[in-house]
Specification:
4 copies of one chain form a homotetramer. With 240 residues, the first copy, chain A, is an alpha+beta fold. Helices cover 18% and strands 25% of the residues of chain A.
Chain lengths: 240, 240, 240, 240
Amino acid sequence: MATVQVRPRSDARHQLVTESWSTRPPVPIDEYADYYGNPVKRLVMPQGELNLRYDAVVAVPDEPDLDASAAPQLPVDEIPGELLHFTLPSRYCLSDQLMGMAWELFGQTEPSGARVHAVCDWVHDNTAVDVLEQRKGVCRDLAHLAITFCRSLNIPARYVFGYLPDLYVPPDPAPMDFAAWMEVYLGDRWWTFDPRNNARRVGRVLIGRGRDALDVAMLTTFGPAAFKSMVVWADLDKAS
Amino acid sequence: MATVQVRPRSDARHQLVTESWSTRPPVPIDEYADYYGNPVKRLVMPQGELNLRYDAVVAVPDEPDLDASAAPQLPVDEIPGELLHFTLPSRYCLSDQLMGMAWELFGQTEPSGARVHAVCDWVHDNTAVDVLEQRKGVCRDLAHLAITFCRSLNIPARYVFGYLPDLYVPPDPAPMDFAAWMEVYLGDRWWTFDPRNNARRVGRVLIGRGRDALDVAMLTTFGPAAFKSMVVWADLDKAS
Amino acid sequence: MATVQVRPRSDARHQLVTESWSTRPPVPIDEYADYYGNPVKRLVMPQGELNLRYDAVVAVPDEPDLDASAAPQLPVDEIPGELLHFTLPSRYCLSDQLMGMAWELFGQTEPSGARVHAVCDWVHDNTAVDVLEQRKGVCRDLAHLAITFCRSLNIPARYVFGYLPDLYVPPDPAPMDFAAWMEVYLGDRWWTFDPRNNARRVGRVLIGRGRDALDVAMLTTFGPAAFKSMVVWADLDKAS
Amino acid sequence: MATVQVRPRSDARHQLVTESWSTRPPVPIDEYADYYGNPVKRLVMPQGELNLRYDAVVAVPDEPDLDASAAPQLPVDEIPGELLHFTLPSRYCLSDQLMGMAWELFGQTEPSGARVHAVCDWVHDNTAVDVLEQRKGVCRDLAHLAITFCRSLNIPARYVFGYLPDLYVPPDPAPMDFAAWMEVYLGDRWWTFDPRNNARRVGRVLIGRGRDALDVAMLTTFGPAAFKSMVVWADLDKAS
């Protein structure tokens, strides 16, 4: 069995224009929304090779991620109750263990988006260059670390993954891959922060949200299955 | 603005195999789940003609609708609380007004699926032939009437619409259209009943559920818009 | 069987301080949240007399209902998708039938809270005095009419019932009863309007919300039961 | 700030008869349902001592926990999609790390409730007696370990806490405390297993459910607060 998360969530800034899904050979799929409202496709893998294909045209706003610098951190008793869930530790974000370090590093910063920027700066700058260049899974790890610090500081933070076409500075010759970033709750809404790129970006297409990467995986297989290859292709069409 | 319900629900007996959605000209859409969990697409209609296209290959079980004859009607205090919603009157199913008639007609039947069959038989048989032959909207009205009786009898009943290929007896030369039927709650689950065809059928693809037709419409337009034409096409491919 | 809605909803402006629930004789109850998130208690009525008692101390803000005059009516394509539910007709709010009247009466008003005030003024002023003085169920009917007009005008509107201590002008010697009012969605939130009193008030304790009174009833009995009496008591304690 | 979980959940086998909640001094509370549907009360703690009191009379079935021995383990592709959430590792149940051990220990058992009994037996028997006698938190740790094994074996398992009067064998002179156990999904429903007592018991009153103890805590304080004492009192009244 495999679960697949490729369909963009409908509650983000992008809008779907066209989409199509198919498999070779044709396989019936089940669909469901998981605990975090992510759309998941599930299928029983046939013998032999299985090819999954999902194409979509998506419209994104011209404006980059909104600027959260001035958004205030909520006192903990003003955080909406059901969001306290995102201040708790999780499998890959052991915020209870980084509490001391988080307050030492960031306790003096302004309790606002500025504090989250300080977190992202630190996470981004204190990661060895060679790790960054290795790329594979880096955005995931950096997101986990930044989320951990935010929760240690009583800021609700959740893990996000999606597509992020490499359109803007810094120009990046590497092929597009899935990307991971985070959302934090400040003031009265969720804001996007991206510790890997540490910049506001255009063109995010959000697929999944959860406590950490455990909750959202593009592809999860149960039982024996060999992963042969994946091609992710994201291109910008100014005209559309 | 228009809202469109064409994507099959993921919690019915069918399974999606492939699908594609597009519009001409390309238009960004929003998607959301309504109060009844139906997937809805919403779009702002551009000037001029707008063409919407949705194609899907869907796998359906070989077996017809399950036989609910023996399923017991629940005493009202054993109906799960949140389902009492579907025993209340609604815009097109004024069950408070048909209470007396319902108990007079069906009060002596066995409190089980047999009672619902009696309702469907009565609704089906007491509808003038010419009305049935006119077809347009008939399945909708018959579903509403049967739902109304069921609610009057304290049986949770909801309105369903979807595709229903004309595969089985009686052979029907008329082109396929959207179809409406109902689901009633007996024992510990929902069961399908179809007052229009009054037969268990193969191949239902369920799109929407609600209290009545008000909650589920294939196409709803807000503001000036002229509806030119619709083609619904459903074909059976035994091979898939 | 009976369903009872007396516990205040937790997502309104009041806050619970103490509460207690008991019955005489003691009867086990089931609790569930209905389709609109209202907390419902359900019980099987024993033979003989049954006495239900619910007491609560509730803290309410000193400020009256917020002033919604300047809040803008949303264009229909900007209304959040899942709220379109509250623009549809329902059993007691046949907004499809009052469409013409609504636009004729209120089409020239500013598309904002001012329009809803115009609706409330009209509903309040065009109701014969003797009807108002009869009291029983008046707030319910006036709320239904105002909701109907709002939906005809594409403004999401829902029915609300709760407790409303008679604290402010106009002084009212009549005993406190359950009260019904409405909430409408303008700008980015729901606002309280009260066609019966047609004034911003202090002290609302909100129990239930729904499409109309069908969805929210303090007491609903299924099967034979005689209603003997009800005492609702709401008092203001400035000290708490 | 503190969050408090003491109110029994409404979707378990017990039924509420009476209840009352109060604090000294009186403090307004907010209520919300968390991600797992648990009812939570939240309050800002005043200066000085704060006393919280919750009393309830609850009716429980005479029968002990249902016997799950024969319930079949579902093949992973038949587990309802949204329940896969409870097969994932969480903060205190690192099932990805015990995968090998789990299959080695329990892989040969029958894929049914018998397998879960084998897990509970092992967890119960392999815990040093002195640990069991120390009591404090034992039920919590044993539940976590058994949950971890179940998830390693692809059986959905969730953490549960509540009240469990010590009524039955073995007689236990120690005072009643909160108890933790687990629920696993077999066949088409959740079943109760209790690795601490390793016996089917009468009288469980279920308060909270979640992935592990992180999600459900009777009392959580944010900021400086000293915990003075807690008295949990649960008594059996055969008459009621």
